[in-house]
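User: two proteins, same treatment. go.

Assistant:
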Amino acid sequence: MFKRYFVRTRELKPGMRMDQAIVDRMDRVLIAKYAILDEFMIESLKNMNLGGVYISEGEIPVIDVTKEEPTSAIAKNNISKYHEDDRARVQLSESVKKRISEGVQYLYNNPSAPEFTQTSSRITNDLMKAITDNQAVAVDISALRASDEYTFKHSVDVATMSMIIAKKMGYPRDQIYEIGISGLLHDMGKSKIPLEVLNKPGRLTDEEFEVMKTHALLGYRILQEKKEISDEIRYGVLQHHEKMNGKGYPLGVTADKIHKFAKIMSVADVYDALVTERPYKKAFSQRTAVEMIMSMTEELDINAMKAFLASVILYPVDTVVELSNGERAWVVKNNPTTALRPVVVGTESGNVYDLGNDIKCANLVIL
């Protein structure tokens, strides 16, 4: 039987299970909901001068949010009153996803094929059409995934996000198109990495990682042989792992030497890698990945980062979320400047929480 109750901080004991999240002023989760308390956590809570926290016992309830409906008249009224559709998003039909996935697999399996450039252009045209057909200015980062296979999925995700970021930054259509091709091909060099390294089920050794790091240069060299591919596309592939502080690879150059395509692709590449489960690591949540991106100001281009944060939809309108105060809430409006903090309405209370602009909601977050 599930039981939730309030415990004063001085009465907390190791082994108790949190039933709320503890966050700092930067909206970062310090202690997650359902975390099992230890002595260090308890001491930290005491140092925060918190009067007490919510604790729970018993089996954690599983709620099917797809069937959840507002339960009060005031909630229904406020959801209708404050509801604002999301910005136009990139939408890929299942048939287009299948065609793109097959095309990318063909590229990575046949880097020397005479149809290489033609296939790259066809895939990018599909992505470009998805962006322009409905004037898409945002991407629902939970709705990507053209393929379950990591390399191919990752390539399409990076291409799509990079194109949307470039559009947000005001790039002309021809450069948005080219950054799409560069994103699709950014990991092309992995086709030359030994399979025992590429497909290793565990974490790479230092030596194996040095081999893996050569994929950026190998991809650049593959594209050097294709005269119809522009230098900008090639430089995006070469430098997508470079960092603003010079601690990236393969060249170790700083911000002023990194191509603008690579600066954009680096943000998309890091985000998608964080949210993807691999044999040697679990996937981070989308929320945590966005928080991590926000913290990487020394490594990622700040303008590309801001455009990414303004282009992603983390909590689509009409989805149900759980708040750190224990309430479940209906997302009614997204704020383009604060992806982590939309406007929500409590499904029972009907309370309206403008997480991004209302100072009274400063300590309230979505879990």
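Protein 2:
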Amino acid sequence: MGDVMSQHLRRQPSGKSAFSMRGCACGCGDTLSLTSGGLSRRSVLAGVAGAAAAAVTGLGSGFGGSRAFAQAASQKSYRIDVHHHLSPPTYIQAVVENHLGSPPQIKWTPEKSLADMDAAGIQVSMLSVTQPGVNFTSGETARKLCRESNEYAAKLISDHPGRFGSFAMIPLTDTEGALKEIEYALDKLKLDGIGLLTSYHDKWLGHPSFLPVMEELNRRKCVVYTHPTTADCCVNLLKTEPPTLVEWGTDTTRTIGDIVFSGNAQKFRDIKWIFSHAGGTMPFLIERFIGQPKIDPQFKPAVPDGALAELTRFYYDTAQTANKASMSALTAIIPTSQILFGTDFPYRTGIDHVKGLRSCGLFSDAQLNDIERGNAVKLLPRLST
């Protein structure tokens, strides 16, 4: 069996990981080697093998409850949460009228956000409207809903100095409307970036119809935060599984693959992508991402330096993945410099994630500081003040 894969990242003091693979041409791996922080291959694999059980234990106990966690939460607020949802009043009205939305989304208030932030030592939360965004409407209605939501976010930033930032919502499938809202949100409202869903009905973020918007985001060197949703292909697949359970992580992975293998990652190198939930299932499918251009040469032009070179430039948040299993997989291939603190409030709490990142036992104090603040400040320098 020939060696068709070889990718390496050396661990540096910044927290970069080493990763190498060998696999067969059919895409199945015959060996897997991970090295992390000087640990032997055997010890790392043993840790990963037991990670699921540890994660379940951590989830069941609220990610621990030691004195260290309580002390961390009581420290002066410094954390930056890049995955924090708001629900503007007009947006709540729209989703309720369309029989959409969940109780946490509909019952959200700014006061609830601030209370959760204070409890977890979070200084700034980057606000975004969660799914379904404006996927349930179109035309002028979608434009108006985006505008009102972005203006509401801007008012919260003004009313609570130093506590909020925002990723603006745009009607991506409406190219003219999207370009107008980008201009308004970034130039007039001075919001911090753009928030997109991972898919829009039957199109993911590498689709050619989105190229004019991607060109503008690249020209502006935009930070683009993404949040999963349920694509048209995959609604109500299983009665036993809501889309939050499996589909959203999968849709995140689909859009990462679409951005990479459409060539958009290579072409639009000044877009700074943030992917939710530790990149969905991408870390577990890394061997296939790396191997695809070698198995099928038509994919090579999209990734001249290899798929891993693109994946390690992206950013990934910790929302609902602050556990040993998820973080072990992510940090095996992604440097710590690309990991951002995220909480998914109001669906989870900030303190859940503060505790989870510490109880997983993977990060030094310096790395935790980078994840919880330093990396976000480098990405969004406005937040340093």
